[in-house]
Amino acid sequence: MKKIFVLLPTLAFVLSVSVAFAGGKQEQKPSAETTTVSKGAQPTSFTKIPVESKATIVFSGWGDQTEQKIYRDSIVRFNKIYPEVKVDYQPIPADFQTKIKAMVAGGTAPDVFYVDDQLMTALGMTGQLLPLDDYMKAANVSRKDFIVELLKIFTYKGKTYGLPKDWGTLGLVYLPETLEAAGVPEPNDNWNWDDLFNAAKKIASNTKFAGFVQNADWARFAPWAFEAGGSYTNSDYTKATLDTPEIKKAASYILNMKKAGALVTSSDVGASWAGEAIGKKVVAMTYEGGWMVNFMRQNYPDVKWKAAKVVKGLNGKRSDVIFTNAIGIISSTKYPKASAAFTIFVTSRENQAEIVKTGFAYSTHPDQIDLVQDPNDKQIAAGGLVGRVAYWGPNTGKINDQVSKALERIYLGAQTVDESFAEANKKVNEILSGQ
Amino acid sequence: MTEEDTGGHKAPPVSSMKMVSKTVSNEQMKQNNENKILTKNRSLSQMKKREELAAYLFLSPYLISALVFTIGLLAFAFYISLNRWNIFTLPKFAGFTNYIKTFKSPDFLRSLLNVFWYSLVVVSFQTAIAILLAVILNKPVPGSSLFRTLFYAPSVTSSVVISMIFWWLYLKTGFLNLAIGKLLGVLHVAWKNIDWLNDPRGLFQLIAGLFGKKIPYSKWYFTGPSITWMAIMFQAIYTTSPTFMIMFLAALQNIPPSLYESASIDGASPWKQFTRITLPLLRPIIMMVVVLGTIGTLQLFDYVKIMTSGGPLGTTLVPVYLIYRETLGTEGPIRAGYGAAMAFILAAIIFIFTYLQRRFIERGTEHYF
Amino acid sequence: MKEVPSITFRFLQEGKKMNEDYAIKDTVKDSVKDSEKEDIIDALKNDGENPVNSKPFSFYFNLSIKYFILSAIAITLFFPFILAFFGTFKSNAEITLWPPKILPSKWLWENWLITWKTDLGRGGTFPRWLFNTAFLSIIIATLQVVFCSLAGYAFARLRFRGKEIIFTFMISSMMLPGVVTLVPKYVMMAKLKLINTYWSLILPGAVEAFGIFLLTQYFKSIPHELEEACMIDGASYFRIYRTVVLPLSRPALLTLYILKFQAMWNNFLDPLLYLNRVNMWTLTVALMTFQQQYKAQWNLTLVGAMFNAIPVLVIFFFFSRYYIEGVSYSGLKT
Q1: A49 domain-assigned
Q2: Cross-chain CB nearest to B247 (options C255, C313, C325)
């Protein structure tokens, strides 16, 4: 018995000496990259900018192994143009924003990293990010090269703090067989709110499938709100606009659909999210995004599904919600030029064209939306040209959360549409006034 | 050495009881022995000095670690709670405004009430179940090592799987609704399926409903813990009880078996043996488990982040969720000072609770803090 | 005070009895495994002393009821683990299937192979992460047992000025939610140049309030008599700690070792924050690359979770034979 208590510490210390520090040495020599560059379009029209000599920059992003490979490949492509810049890719697999904030506070931040609206608020608005405008000018890149709406989040006081790396939006995802079973024609570009309502109601009452699945979620609600002409705040993010007829119109539509039995939540049908409900073939339609392509291929390869554009509003106008992330640079970097060169390259047409081919993400350049390969993905991506980001300034997260909560109250029947959004409006105004 | 020491119970005339009361307290005995040791060659003050020096030597690793890693950070956190700070630029002094803001925040007050219910239920049940499991496992039968390992499994099983299983259990079409439906079906009572993880109805609301009274959601302080909240409490009890079980299991090893033997010779029933020998001797460990449990439950965060995000209707909102949100700025600008102020208020509440518990559990024995 | 002599006497008797147990243990020597030995000893003891158990029918009846209860609880508590284990062989879609099936319809053995062969480049491979995790867990659990038992002994047995203040401070330090000191702690680690080294995990993890509190409470529940006997003999405090308190509290030390081993083995946030390079990662951090929103690979996540659970269970199984009633005393030779 005693031996065990002696053995364990001994073992521990033998291990400690042999390994802890051997690990440190091993890092010194960077092992050869195993990734290969696809022999696609050679970047030709690309403008190189002068960079510091012997620059080594650290680049961090989140993402699974697919995403990591895509960025390792991007680095190889970058090194073809800038062989003199070394890029050390250090992915952060989870809690990305927390770690980046801690690193910035501790002075150990990577030079280049992903920036989302949360990091833009924390870092961009407190002077921790490098303005990119001068470097863009040197590289002949203008803001107009990008889908302009995507830059909204990353612009502060007229300066650009991040270049959009990819984006997503929502489309009408459906199972053709369920519509057929109910005798409903497949959706087309002219479908509006009423068409969707009637189709969902017909499916729900005539077949074993649920009609339309949507949870109490600000993002899935946004297309309806935007199409009704609503917005969560006013344009300079100083006042809530949740108590407006437009927002209430969208919310009433959702509530009526729910009351008519045409709309369910994912947990109603035994799924953890709407996409899974489609995969499990328990519901006919939902609003989901481009991630459905890989999700369905990976998990439900035998399920036939299709996508169309989100339906038009009753005024004939179509709108959609856009999600986006950018790449930005820490202002304290030792190599601002090399970092800028890398940021500009990764988000350039040349590199994005390669990424689109993998089916991983859409290009952030408006003239490259057509490059999307998958027909379903193409339908979903079309929302990008009519969509807008659900961005409401530094308190975006809290405001969107209030919208989700207002929807939850309606879903649970705890309040009427009027009561619920009046309360949300009041709360958002409190948040905006800094209470 | 009277009834005081066994927690006020009237001890039966069992000879082993003397032993129990004896081991629980030790100060007098120490004094007694000191006299014997004194007769050797040292003076009392020398003895005391020697003991004190030894104590600080024993404590030195912790003291050094606390000096480097704990004291500074706690002091800094307190300083921050008196400031406005975005963690990147210099803090701006704000006095007690962060504390005042905390007390004025309805969300914070509500989260305190939620977490109070949670702590009360989870700590009571997990402590009781852990003792029960430990006592069951303590009597060796062939294969008991295997049973111990099987009992311990929930605390090492991936939380992903456990959450998934409970999700299946709680679904509107899940096992729980199915089972209750079948059970009531036998009695010819209709059962309306409950969406366990998304039902804001509170316990008191439901009880009042039975008497035809209605408590509106806006009076959140009267509704009691919601159905969803209770469902999460159940999951927490299931997952953490085995961890506390092994703490009790280890403590049971310190009870000399002869105590039970002589007690049963004296005719004490197993229940009497449990309440008169086991429980009093486990008191320091019960106190530890309750204190650790209280600290852990009042700082609950993961379940809420993963499973409910505070909903439905704010009935599962907890303080650390708000603290996390403000300190790290997950939904808005970073307000580390406000987060720290909330954290210190929470810590003060935890301190009061654990202090009272300690006073209650360790009544009549040597205690500190 | 009058009882003291009689208690001492009882205790000495107790010790004698234990020696007898030891003698029995020796007679059933190496023919059986140690864990079973304990059971047999107990059975022998029960047979001899308890009149109820000497009747074969009621003895077996009681035993079978006992097994029934044990098995029922074991199934309830072990079921999720079983489901997780079989989940590692399922396809992603089958794991989330409702209603769930326990056995996979098609056994995908390759899930284990895919996980094992994960390679993120730059030395970030699965065996390496497994090794890092084991290394850190063993070191930290060992250091905790050593340093916490020292401090726990002082709190439980010695009298010194400032005891209450230090103890209260220690317990109080656990009451502030960790998220508040997350950033300041990171900044401090960065200033100490410990980022991206294992020291950032080992140094703050070597001794903690939790472990000290745990052991203090155990030491308080150990009877004092033996120590006092040594005290009268003039033994030093360190000798009493080493030769009396530590051997008596083996189950408690083991408990702390298991809890801390498991805590480090499953620690996620600290390695994520302090370790940047993929070859220095621990398992929990690396496994997050299987779990991204809308793309979660549940089956691979579950394989990884097995690597998190099985070592802890094996260690627990291996050590759990020391959780035997009265073992503290039987091991003691005075």
Answers
A1: no
A2: C255
The residues with which A112 forms a beta bridge, in sequence order, are: A59, A329
Q: Which helix (H) or strand (E) holds C108?
A: none
C190: contact with B, CB 8 A cutoff: no
Contacts of A271 in chain C (CB under 8 A): 96
CA dihedral over B246, B247, B253, B256, signed as positive or negative: negative
Which has the closest alpha carbon to A12: B340, C275, B6, C264?
C264
Q: How far is B210 from chain C (nearest CA, A)?
A: 33
A211 lies in the same domain as A360: no
Residue A4 is classified by DSSP as H
Q: The CATH number of the domain where B257 resides is what?
A: 1.10.3720.10
Residue A277 shares a structural domain with residue A224: yes
Number of separate domains in chain A: 2
Residues 39-98 of A with CB under 8 A from B: 97-98
| Record: contact A1-C331, CB cut-off 8 A | yes
Domain, as residue range, for B234: 82-361
Extract the runs of DSSP E, i.e. beta strands, from A12-162. Answer: 56-60, 86-89, 112-115, 155-156, 159-160
Residue of A nearest to B334 (CA): A122
Amino acid at B4: E
d(CA A246, CA C124): 52
A residues 240..299 contacting C (CB < 8 A): 270-273, 275-276, 279-280, 291-292, 294-295, 298-299
Does a structural domain hold residue B52?
no
Task: Count the domains in chain B.
Answer: 1
A413 located within any domain? yes
**Do A347 and A259 belong together in one domain?**
no
Domains recognised in chain C with CATH numbers: 119-284 (1.10.3720.10)
The answer, yes or no, to whether the previous bond of A187 is cis (omega within 30 of 0) is no
Structure tokens at C22: 């030891």
- B319 inside domain: yes
**pTM (whole model) above 0.90:** no
With a CB cutoff of 8 Å and minimum separation 6, the contacts of C1 are B1, B28, B32
**Prediction ipTM score:** 0.84
Taking alpha carbons only, the member of C254, C259, C312, C314 closest to residue C283 is C312
Q: From CA C71, how far away is CA C322, in angstroms rounded?
A: 21
Three-state DSSP string of B116-128: HHHHHHHHHHHHH
- Residue B309 C-alpha, separation from nearest chain A C-alpha, in angstroms: 10
Phi, psi of A241 (to 5 degrees): -125, 45
Q: Give the residue-averaged pLDDT of C316-320.
A: 83
What is the domain extent for residue A301? 170-322+393-432
State pLDDT tens for residues B214-273: 888 888 889 999 999 999 999 999 999 999 999 998 888 878 778 888 888 888 888 888
Question: How far off is chain C from B49, nearest CA to CA, in Å?
Answer: 9
Cβ of A90 under 8 Å from any chain C Cβ?
yes
Question: Residue range A383-410: average pLDDT?
Answer: 93
- CB neighbour burial string for A86-125, b if at least 16 within 10 angstroms, e if fewer: bbbbebbbbbbbbbbbbbbbbebbbbbbbbbbbbbbbbbb
Q: How far is CA B62 from CA A344, B86, C145, in A?
A: 51, 32, 12
In this structure, is residue A365 part of a structural domain? Answer: yes
List b or e across B186-210, with b for residues whose CB sees 16 or more CB atoms inside 10 angstroms. Answer: eeeeeeeebbbbbbbbbebbeebee
Can you list the residues of chain B whose pLDDT is less than 50?
1-26, 367-369
Regarding whether A401 and A256 lie in a shared domain, the answer is yes
Residue B59 lies in a domain: no
Residue that finishes a domain, picked among A379, A403, A418: A379
Please report, for the domain that includes residue A98, its CATH number. 3.40.190.10
Residue B361 neighbours by CB under 8 Å, 6+ apart: B283, B286, B287, B290
Pair (A80, A127) in one structural domain:
yes
**Residue among C292, A410, C177, A350 at smallest CA distance from B336:** C177
Nearest-Cα distance to chain C for B353, in Å, is: 11
